[in-house]
Specification:
Layout lengths: L2 E2 L5 H8 L4 E2 L1 H4 L7 E6 L5 H12 L6 E7 L10 H7 E3 H4 L4 E6 L15 H14 E7 L1 H11 L4 E15 L13 E11 L2 H5 L4 E7 L3 E7 L4 E4 L9 H11 L25 H17 L11
Parallel strand pairs: 1-2, 1-4, 3-4, 3-6, 4-5, 6-7, 7-12
Antiparallel strand pairs: 8-9, 8-10, 10-11, 11-12
Helix pairs in contact: 1-3
């Protein structure tokens, strides 16, 4: 599919090597269609890695996407160069006069903080409120999901006794729901988090529907029944070695982390892990783009309700 991004973006080279159709501006303007406008609020510290992961998943569709990468103005990134951010990213203030077909809010390594102690919390609250009227459908991921559930539905996140890290089996609860159409009854997905939400708190909100969960990892997919919000508590965008890199990083820090569950062959961290979730990850984002963005968003975004 034609995903339109600047050809100088580091992700472009990686995606081209994977035979993913990347289109530049000159070719895009020759196609007589309106591309879907998708914004990604990238809250992760390793922004180049994260942007590549999400762009890979968004590529699995025949639709043309016009991607806008966003970062917060109220937080200074220590792991991504100012040059990269200045070249490829915009702040919320720079785009809040626009409307978008879709928005992704990524996770962030701030789970141990109270929401209001996060330095960009006010900015994020403003963006989430803006998205209700200016974005047709929003996908909130991991910490972003907990933030979205709290801001929009008053659901508190809970601190876990220990980090949930590994690849867990999940069950599809509403297989006829378009977001999970084509999913196996059971599927795998990675988690890497210190927080969670209680199932019963979600069930108290009439607008919300739990689509998938894990006996070990808890609630995984939650939908607003109007199709305008989705919440993913895991990290299906992760590469096969992301959990390994996180584990080795924490070992070097002396944190003494537990080995991620169901991830390394024979639970042996010296062995190379294998991705068992990529098909489900591609299907999740393809379904979102098809059923909840492309088929529902108005051609003229100014007509968005």
């Amino acid at each position: 599919m034609p995903i339109k991004i600047p050809m100088a973006l580091p992700a472009a080279e990686a995606l081209i090597k994977e035979n993913i159709f990347v289109m530049d501006e000159a070719r895009a303007v020759k196609q007589d269609i309106r591309p879907l406008k998708i914004a990604i609020m990238n809250l992760m510290p390793t922004k180049i890695v994260t942007e590549t992961q999400f762009l890979r998943l968004l590529s699995n569709t025949p639709l043309q996407l016009d991607i806008t990468l966003l970062n917060t103005a109220s937080h200074i990134s220590k792991n991504t160069s100012e040059e990269h951010l200045a070249t490829f990213y915009k702040t919320f203030d720079e785009v809040k006069h626009e409307k978008f077909d879709g928005l992704i809010v990524t996770g962030a390594p701030v789970e141990l903080l109270d929401f209001k102690d996060v330095d960009y919390w006010d900015e994020l609250c403003e963006m989430v409120a803006w998205a209700k009227k200016n974005v047709y459908s929003t996908m909130y991921v991991c910490w972003g999901a907990y933030a979205g559930l709290y801001i929009n539905h008053g659901i508190e996140k809970i601190a876990l006794d220990k980090k949930v890290s590994g690849v867990f089996r999940h069950e599809t609860l509403v297989p006829e729901y378009p977001l999970v159409r084509g999913f196996n009854k059971q599927f795998s997905a990675p988690h890497s988090r210190y927080s969670g939400v209680k199932r019963e708190d979600i069930e108290k909100v009439d607008d919300l529907l739990i689509l998938a969960e894990s006996d070990e990892a808890g609630v995984y997919l939650v939908a607003n029944k109007n199709g305008r919000e989705f919440f993913v508590t895991g990290h299906c965008e992760y590469d096969f070695d992301t959990l390994r890199n996180e584990y080795e990083r924490d070992v070097k820090k002396g944190i003494n982390p537990e080995v991620p569950k169901h991830y390394f062959p024979d639970d042996d961290p010296t062995k190379t892990p294998v991705s068992t979730w990529r098909a489900h990850a591609h299907l999740l984002y393809a379904n979102w783009l098809n059923y909840y963005v492309y088929q529902n968003t108005p051609y003229d975004l100014n007509e968005m309700l």
